[in-house]
Amino acid sequence: MNDEIAQRVWRVRERVERAARRAGRNPEDVRVVAVSKTQPVRAIEEVVAAGIVDIGENYVQEARSKAAQLSRPAVWHLVGALQRNKVKQALQLFTWIHTLDRPALAHELEKRAVAEGKQAVQVLVEVNLGGEASKAGVAEAALEELLRVASECTRLEVRGLMTIPPPSADPEESRPYFRRLRELRDRWQTLRLPRVSLEHLSMGMSDDFEVAVEEGATMVRIGRAIFGARLTRGTRAGNCEGAEGAPLVERR
Ligand SMILES: *Cc1c(COP(=O)(O)O)cnc(C)c1O
Questions:
Q1: 3-class state of residue 93 by DSSP
Q2: Is 226 in the pocket of ligand 1 (CB under 6 A)?
Q3: 212 CB within 6 A, ligand 1
Q4: How would residue 230 be classed by pLDDT, with cut points 50, 70 and 90?
Q5: 97 lines ligand 1 (CB under 6 A)
């Protein structure tokens, strides 16, 4: 074991802090969520030891098995797509669900929250701003309807919005998407729907988190800049994809 991870955590923190100050924001208003998909529990232990309590995972099963082995307390965030048949297990572990993207899922979360005795499930609505058909997230045009549906679910607290811009080599290309998410937040916050507070913006990953912080992110979801290159599943080397259960292979 060395302190490579601790150093990366420190550097990410410093970059978040500088970006926040550039934008006249308080760095403490930005949470770093360390996204640990494919990473071993040992690496998560180091991240938590370095002071990050927020851990993001893409798959319910993977997160459950890691949480069971982790020796330190963490706050778990689900940042990957949620299937209806995993909702019950997800509610048992995750404090934050970043990926509410359809009315049927809101209804399932509500139903399971009642069954599990959960009073308040904290969710973010994932918005697909790039219009990429392959990506998860509610289309901008359907956002209002989803917020209204979620607002009628008395066990759901809609705390904010989340987005993943189309991949690009230039972080500046993400800026219009981040800005748009903030504008949508500002707009729908004025509706004052019950249990829809929208104070959070979950946006920014390893390659563009500074731009996201400048545009108002309150949660940045960071994988590689903290853990280093990740193991990926099968041949699907995409950032945010992979079939659960497929074998892990080294990437690059
Ligand atoms: C993997 C993943 C991240 C982290 O990606 P990096 O580019 O490694 O920082 C963030 N958000 C989601 C939804 C992800 O799937």
A1: helix
A2: no
A3: no
A4: confident
A5: no
